[in-house]
Write a sequence for this structure.
């Protein structure tokens, strides 16, 4: 497990698209991880929206150790502890609360907290976070919002998620304050459920080709 987000940023420099995954069965995890890697991706976020989420993180790390795998929808201390024990390289939350902040403890450097406003971004920076998740990105202002935030808050970096798609990912990634984008279009829940590993690899390659023509 990494001790900070340095490895994530290095991986994002090579492939700045982070698939946000909903995995309903641990058995899906290993072939999914291999499909993402085959498609050229270096980072994945497994949401804790299903009982299989924690097990999927462990299985993906075991199958493809070089893949940077994070836990998404981290909401409380149990989520933090279980994710770290499973080998999560980073943690993502839709927002931040006093309880979640206190529960992070020594794992605080792994967290990418969600923000939707300039005030929230400033608060997270004061708490020690420098990589933030603009969420939901499309509702929070999208590309224009990130452009506006870059002026007064040039020291902050973002991973926008929520409404990011194949059509607009390149526009987000053209911004200097965007490290990576998160989205579900590369490996949808239907893709994973049907075991369409070849299709997932193809969509990953297409996404990277579109942003690096």
């Amino acid at each position: 497990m990494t001790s900070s987000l340095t490895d994530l940023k290095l991986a994002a420099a090579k492939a700045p698209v982070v698939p946000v995954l909903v995995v309903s069965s641990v058995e899906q995890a290993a072939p999914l991880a291999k499909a993402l890697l085959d498609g050229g991706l270096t980072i994945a976020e497994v949401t804790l929206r299903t009982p299989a989420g924690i097990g999927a993180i462990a299985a993906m790390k075991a199958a493809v150790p070089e893949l940077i795998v994070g836990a998404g929808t981290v909401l409380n201390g149990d989520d933090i502890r279980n994710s770290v024990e499973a080998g999560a390289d980073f943690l993502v939350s839709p927002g931040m609360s006093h309880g979640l902040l206190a529960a992070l403890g020594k794992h605080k450097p792994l967290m990418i907290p969600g923000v939707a406003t300039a005030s929230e971004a400033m608060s997270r920076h004061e708490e020690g976070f420098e990589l933030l998740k603009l969420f939901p990105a499309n509702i929070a202002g999208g590309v224009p919002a990130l452009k506006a935030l870059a002026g007064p808050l040039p020291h902050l970096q973002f991973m926008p998620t929520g409404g990011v798609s194949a059509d607009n990912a390149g526009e987000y990634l053209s911004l200097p304050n965007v490290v990576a984008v998160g989205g579900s279009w590369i490996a949808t829940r239907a893709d994973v459920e049907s075991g369409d590993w070849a299709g997932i690899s193809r969509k990953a390659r297409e996404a990277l080709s579109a942003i690096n023509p």
Remarks:
- The longest helix spans residues 197-211.
